[in-house]
Amino acid sequence: MAEGVEILLAVYNGEKYLPEQIESILNQSDGGWHLTLSDDGSTDASPRIIADCAARFPEKITVYRSDRRFGNARDHFFHLMARCSAAHMLFCDQDDVWYPDKVRLTRRALEDAERAHGPDAPVLAFSDQVPTDAGLRPLADSLMRYQKQYFGRFDYRSILMQNVVTGGAMGVNRALARMAGNAPADAIMHDWWLAATAARFGHIVYIDRPLGVYRQHGDNAVGAKDVDSAGYIAGKLAGLRDVRRAILRKKAQAAAFRERYRDRLGPEDFAFLDAFARPRSGPGFWLKYQGLIHGAARKAGMLVMG
After folding, report:
1. Can you give the pTM of this predicted structure?
2. DSSP per-residue letters across 14-37
3. How far, in Å, CA of 248 to CA of 278, rounded?
4. Apex CA 197: angle with CA 95 and CA 178, to 5°?
5. What letter does residue 237 receive in the DSSP assignment?
6. What percentage of the chain's residues is helix, strand, coil (to nearest 5)?
7. Which domains, ranges and CATH numbers included, belong to the chain?
8. Fewest Cβ atoms closer than 10 Å to its Cβ: which of 97, 120, 164, 191?
9. Which residues 6+ apart lie within 8 Å of 133 measured at CB?
10. Greatest CA separation for the chain
């Protein structure tokens, strides 16, 4: 097994922000990392940028060529994770910027958890971030608090209903990568699937300080949201079909989770997952589990549409 930290950076048309993100990795206080860059058919200058970086720092940066087209970050990151043999993996978004202690503190959180729970325990560690606009002007001091996300305790049932782990803020150990790899087609995102798996079968460690910025520029795959704001709620009310489709995707992911881990689950797990995966779970289900849903708008949407 390879030692150290492998940083996995999935690239697609990232020329505008990619150089700044790579520079922030090069400036890490912990030098025990290696960066794998993988391009997914970019039509801008991204291939040239990553090739130039690898040529300048061949001992630290490798360009991986899969010879295939993924078309989305989920499949791209799962592929990179599956071929990685490092003890610890950090996932990197091309448009963010990491603070200098990002690698050091994430690695320390993973190692501390492995010492406490054993090297075979699946572990995920993630930090807070500072949401910013495209020019890196802060929108809030904390992404977690901005999005009304909980971090006191991580329950996989709650995570299946709303993910709280941002991919670009997380690292995982090899045990979690082995367990959660080869994810089913109904896994919504790599971070979501990894977080639910770690919460149920291992451990999630939250670092309650920002270790980077989460840049918002209009083309984010997910993006930051103030879920109880009037604008967010109005947008959801104007697109109820989209809300229903999003809930159905969560239900399909819960069903996939049940099937993937069927031999490891207990009666209480099946009671929850079977009810959640139904096309309509019913008000009784949502009232029973309302304590696991965070944000008034989310609770109302699940109760009415789920």
Report:
1. 0.91
2. -TTTHHHHHHHHHT-S---EEEEE
3. 9
4. 85
5. H
6. 45, 20, 35
7. 2-215 (3.90.550.10), 230-305 (no CATH)
8. 120
9. 139, 215, 216, 217
10. 60
Q: Report the alpha-carbon distance of residue 114 to residue 305 in Å, rounded.
A: 40
Closest CA to 281 of 254, 265, 302: 302
- Closest residue by Cα to residue 93 from 7, 29, 205, 207: 7
Instruction: Report residue 33 as tokens.
Output: 């990392």
Name the helix (H) or strand (E) containing 64. strand 61-64
- Structure token pair of residue 226: 């103030």
Closest CA to 272 of 123, 148, 183, 159: 159
Rounded Cα distance between 298 and 118, Å, is 36
* Model confidence at 237: pLDDT above 70: no
Q: How far is CA 294 from the centre of its chain?
A: 18
Per-residue pLDDT reduced to its tens digit, 258-287:
999 999 999 999 999 999 999 999 989 998
- pLDDT band (50, 70, 90) for residue 301: confident
Distance of CA 299 to the CA centre of its chain: 22
Q: Are 8 and 81 in contact (CB under 8 A)?
A: yes
Burial class (CB within 10 angstroms; exposed 0-12, middle 13-18, buried 19+) of 139 = middle
* Coil vs helix vs strand at 228: coil
Q: Which residue type, as a one-letter code, is found at position 164?
A: V
Element (H, E) at 300: helix 296-305
> b/e map of 192-231 (b: 16 or more CB within 10 Å)?
bbbbbbbbbbbbbbbbeebbbbbbbeeeeeeebbbbeeee
Spatial distance between the Cα atoms of 77 and 79, rounded to a whole number of angstroms: 5
Backbone angles phi, psi at 181, to 5 degrees: -70, 175
Residues 93-113: what's their mean pLDDT? 97
Tokens of 175: 């045990």
pLDDT of residue 1: 36
Q: 193 or 227, which is more confident?
A: 193
Confidence of residue 291 (pLDDT cuts 50, 70, 90): confident
Distance from C-alpha of 292 to C-alpha of 299, rounded to nearest angstrom: 9
